[in-house]
Amino acid sequence: MAGTLGLWKQILDEIKVQVDPQTYSTWFDKTNEFSLVGNTLTVKAPTKFFADWLDQHYKSFIEEIAYNLTAENISVDFIGSASEAPSNYSFSKSSFVGSSKDNGLNPRYTFERFVVGNNNHFAFSAAQAVADKSGKIYNPLFIYGGVGLGKTHLMQAVGNSIVNNKINKRVLYTSTEDFTNEMISAIQTNTTINFRKKFRTYDILMIDDIQFLAGKEGSQEEFFHTFNTLYNAKKQIILTSDRPPKEIKRLQDRLISRFEWGLLADIKRPNYETRVAILRQKCVEENITLKPEVLEFIAENFDDNIRQLEGSLIKILAFSSYKKVKPHQIEITDVKEILEDMMGNRKRPVTLDLIQEEVAKYFEIGKNQIKEPTRKKEIAFPRQIAMYLSAKLIPHISLLEIANHYNKKDHTTIIHAKKTISQKIDKDNNLKSKINEITENILQ
Ligand code: ADP
Ligand code: MG
């Protein structure tokens, strides 16, 4: 491609403008362009942990920036340190690049890597049963639970198990967002027939975060027909959601009832022992050793979800590589310092939900009203503040996660909200003190 020499450098310049400096220095400072082959940009990160994190949290954000810069669909892959890259890189790429095969599966998300505890035992068994006898027992399998508790991992483990066992079945994993977008573009290009055909050819269809169908009438209609076709042909459907079907607002009753036909399995927050076990497992996977008391310290302090546990480990590893201290030499006192910004002295973790709740309370509107798709100032303005504060107060959150939470298509709405609110704060001391007050309520 012409004119894309140093593409990663150009992308970094853009990222620098869009994320806060701390995020930039933690995640992007030590990244380098590894190769640009065709439309695939491979970026090298200091460790595999970094590579995975970037893949999970920034991939689509970065691909969008790349598109804006080049007007081409660039796919971005992340790899760990140079030592992990085989010399015949271009031939064995798929063995170490994290994601994006045609079936949408991330090969890391396997049953073997999934730590089972009381919180997820039931869902785990159900998923295994479905992998063994797809379409025959629980259909659909509906997995629900809070953010970062392993829904996506478990769902994909079913797909990976089928693929790895070379069972001759067509598997597709997709997000509800991609499903919806693909449908919309099919409508625009008059190719809905192909769209339907495509989705109906799968033996196992996995759709993640189905709660995002809420309020999308056209997509619900289309999905209803896809569901029926697959179901009648005894094809397996697996869905995840952040809540049980009945609690998804603005979802057609006929879909709710179909989602309840099979098995509903929830995943709860892991207890202390499970959290320690998960941390140990991640250390084994990364081939690092941390002092047991360090792992216990992390497990005691982060009980909200597993993403936090992973985030803590990544920060500790970042510290270890910058300071050139071996992971097993890191002490609890170091960890307290490293994770200070993630812990604070808070009793409640700062989450998207908490911010939504506190902002709504402050403006005396309903918690869910703030998400209503209206431009009315009394709703839209608090919503922008909530988006702004989410980006500011939640460590390592991606703009896309915030966008998803507020049912927005992509991160641009969030960038806009951040900009608008910061500009207003600069000019308006009254607003500034209001926002400080809300921040205090959130962090209390
Ligand atoms: P969700 O889809 O519920 O938001 P994910 O499946 O994305 O959560 O999980 C967040 C991260 O935590 C992933 O990296 C995943 O591998 C990890 N994880 C979640 N549950 C487990 C588990 N039981 N054992 C090991 N890793 C887990
Ligand atoms: Mg998920």
Would you write up a description of this structure?
It is a single chain. With 444 residues, this protein is α/β, with parallel strands linked by helices. The longest helix is centred in the first third of the chain and has 23 residues, at 48-70. The chain is globular. The strands form two sheets. Strands 5-6-7-4-8 form a five-stranded parallel β-sheet, with helices on both faces. Strands 1-2-3 form a three-stranded mixed β-sheet. α1 (7-18) packs across α3 (48-70), α15 (352-362) crosses α16 (377-393) and α18 crosses α19 (429-443). β1 (32-37) and β2 form a beta hairpin. It has helices at residues 7-18, 21-27, 48-70, 121-132, 151-164, 176-188, 192-199, 217-232, 253-259, 272-286, 292-301, 306-323, 332-338, 340-343, 352-362, 377-393, 399-405, 412-427, 429-443; strands at 32-37, 40-44, 75-79, 141-145, 171-175, 204-208, 236-241, 263-267. The structure holds adenosine-5'-diphosphate (ADP) and magnesium ion. Magnesium ion binds next to α5.
- For the terminal residues, how far apart are their CA atoms? 52 Å
The count of β-strands is 8
User: What are the segments in which pLDDT stays under 50 over at least 5 consecutive residues?
Assistant: 82-101
Mean pLDDT: 88
**Which radius of gyration do the C-alpha atoms yield?**
22 Å
Bound molecules: adenosine-5'-diphosphate, magnesium ion
Order of strands, main sheet, comes to: 5-6-7-4-8
**Structural class of the helices, strands and pairings?**
alpha/beta
- Portion of residues in beta strands equals 5-15%
Largest sheet: 5 strands, parallel
Helix content: 40-55%
Count the DSSP helices: 19
Shape: globular
Tell me the series of helices and strands, N- to C-terminal.
Answer: HHEEHEHEHEHHEHEHEHHHHHHHHHH
